Amino acid sequence: MDDVIPFGALLGVVCGVGLLAVLSNRLSTRLRVPAPAFFLVGAAVASAVVPALGGLSITAVQRVVTVALLVILFDGGMHIGLSRFRSAAGPIVWLGVAGTVVTAAALAAAARWLFGFDWHLALLLGTTGLRLLVLREPLPVPLSNRLYGLAAAGGIATLNVGIAAFVMRADDALQLPFGDLLYGDLSPIATKTRFGLAFIGMTLGYAVVTALVLLAWILDRPSLLWPSFLVGVGFATGLSLSGHQGVEPNATFLTGLADWLHLVAALMWVGGLVGLALCVWPLAPALRRSAFLGFSRIATVLVAVLVVAGTYLSTSRLPSVSDLWETPYGRTLLVKLATVGAALGWGAVHHFVVRPRLERDDAPRGLRRSLIGESSVALLVLLVAAVLVNAQPPPVEPAGSSRVASTLPP
Fold it and tell me: Does residue 213 sit in the same domain as residue 343?
C-alpha cells in the first residue's frame, strides 16, 4: 500500500507532462515559438520555485542528457529513413562532426585574444546604432534583413566568445587539464572575482540584447531595437570593470567612465563603417548619400570622444612619457596610436573631401572600396586594442610616495 501513493504521484506527473506537451504544441503553432522553448522556461521556473529540483549532481545531469540525446537521435532516424540518410551522410559528417570539432577548437584557441577584440560588439551595437541614429524607417527589405543579420550575428558571437574566454581565463587560474576543467566547479571564479561577476552580468545582459534583436527581426518591429541598443551600450561597462581600469590601484570613477566612453565610441564608429560598406552601399543606392552624410556627422562626435578619452587613459596608465618606448605596454600603445592615426586620416579624407562632393551629388568612384578599407583599418585598431588589454601597464606609484620617501632618514 505504501508504494501506491508514490506510483500514483509519478503517474500523475508523467500524465501532466504529456498534457503540457500537447498544449505546448498548440500554443507554439499559434505563437510561432518552438515548443521546447516552453519546456526550457518551465524547467527554469520550476527549479527556481522548488530548489530541490536543481540539486542534481553533474553525473546525473550527464546521464539524463545522454539518454535524451539517444532518444532524439533514434526518433530522428526513424523518420528520416535509410535512403535520406545516405544522401545526407556526407554533410552530416563534415558539418555536424568535423565542423563542430574544428569550430570548438578554433574558438578555444582564439578566445585568449578574441575576448579583447570586440568585433562582435561592434557588429551588434554599431549596425544597430547606424539603423537607429542615421537611417530612417521603413528600410528596403534586403537592407533591413542584412542589418538584422549582422546585429544578430554580433550578439550570438558576443555570447559564445565571452563563454570561451571565461573558460580560458579559468584554465589559466586553475591550471587543470582541459577535460577536468570542462566538468570542474567554476562557481568560485564566477561569483567571487571581478572578472567572473562582469562575465555573468554581460552574458545575461547580452542574451537579452540578442533576444530583442531577434524578436525585432522576426516580428518586424524595429522599435524593439531601441531597448536592445541602450541595454547593450550599458552592459559594455562590464569590459571596463574587468579590465585595467577596474583593477589598477589608481583607478577612479573618471578613468572607468573614460574607458567606457572610449570603448562605446570605438564600437559605434567601427560598426557603423561596416554597416555602410556591407549593407547600405550594395543594397540601397538611393540611401547612400543621406546615410554617408548622417554617419559623417555622428562620426565626428565619436572620433572626438575617442581621442579625448584615449588621451586621458594613456596619461593615467603611463607614469612618464619614456614608458612609451621603454615598456612593452608603451610600445604596444604606440602601435595602436599609429593604427588609430591611419584610420583617422582615412576618415578625415572622407569627411573633408568626399562629404562636400556628396553634398553636391558628385559621388566619387570607388567609395565603397574606400569604406571597406577604412573599416578594415578600424578593425585592426580593435585587434591591437585586444593585445593592449592583455598587456600589463607599468606600475604607477601612489601620489606623494616619492616625496614621503625623500623625507625619511637614510
Answer: yes
DSSP 206-262: HHHHHHHHHHHHHHT-GGGHHHHHHHHHHHTHHHHHHSHHHHSTT--HHHHHHHHHH
Say whether both 148 and 230 belong to one domain. Answer: yes
The grid cell for 298 is 555622428
> Domain of 321?
108-394
Same structural domain, 158 and 43: no
Average pLDDT of adjacent 10-residue blocks, the chain of 410 residues: 67 74 70 66 71 69 74 68 66 56 49 54 87 88 91 87 77 70 73 78 88 91 92 80 56 79 86 88 87 87 86 77 75 81 82 78 75 76 67 59 41
Say how many domains are in the chain.
2
Separation between Cα atoms, residue 270 and residue 305, nearest integer Å: 14
- Asked, as a colleague might, if the bond just before 138 is cis with ω within 30 of 0, I would say yes
Give the number of other Cβ atoms within 10 Å of residue 259's Cβ.
25
Residue in the block written with cell 566612453: 261
Q: Is residue 94 part of a domain?
A: no
